[in-house]
Amino acid sequence: MTSKQHTAEHGTQLEQVNGFTNPGLPEHTPRLTDISPAAERTTERQIAGWFILSMIGTIWFIVSYFLFAPDETMASIQLQNMMFGLGATLALFGIGVGLVLWGKTLVSGTEVAEDRHPIEGNEEDQAVALEILNQAKDESGIARRPLLRNTLIAAVAIAPLPAILVFRDLGPLPGDKMFTTLWGPGVRLCQDPGGVPREDRFIRAEDVTIGSAVHVIPEGMHESEHPLDEKAKAAVLLMRIDPKELNTDPAKEDWGVDGIVAYSKICTHVGCPVALYEHQTHHLLCPCHQSTFDVTNHCEVIFGPAKRPLPQLPIAVDSEGYLVAQRDFPEPVGPTFWEINTRETSEQ
Question: Which of 216, 251, 265, 285 could join 235 via S-S bond, C-beta 3.0 to 4.6 A?
């Protein structure tokens, strides 16, 4: 059925129902690439250039992984991330622009109107579907444009390669590393940020007011071999709540000091820093995926994807009035992993 027949057949019905006449399809205006073989070849080379640019971006991502290998300084990490971003942007942008340009300039742009047929699985419909696929192949020109086809296939084929490097950086299984931190008996709580711990950075219990929240790290962290790695495990959020509002587990009754409690700052979902404290509701919020923890109930999960509470750090007061850890966290900090119950099972 032609577009004119379609318009003639349905125009009256539309006028009776909606009060206006179907204007039909607009007259087709050929594009420059439709009438000029030279313009068509130029456009084809331009599209292939975008696909080649995508391949360059992918290769640059891989090169950046080795060329800008970071040390433990933040500047080197930021530089590598910037190079990663540049490579990934070129890789994805090149494919996207190339495909859009292909569709806008080389794929047939003739407007058509077709009646919708019932969806059935008979042989006739299968033949029609196959005919449509063959028509799409002919209109896109993918079969007769080997330059575009091959550069597109190459760009898409190598685009996932950076993911291999990213997965490689996940490193080995954590083993026992997540079971221990720098916290231990008598280790003082030190304000963070504060540079190298010194006397005026240690926290006295009497100075922690109700409703306050303090980011703390263990004393001596900066003297460790890998301070950033240790901070990623040992970061703690210290809060003080009216003891009457705490629903304390009898087994953990001596883990706090007059309403002062300390919990791991590392979310048990994917390890983001839990740094948002709402002192009226006593809720801790992870800004990454909105996991919410109730401090009054040992930081149990009340919303979001996290599956277990934040580990609590048992604290006490030393002879000079400073807050100190009683011992390390009783359970692994951070996201749940396959071996999280290995130590507990072996101890039993």
Answer: 265
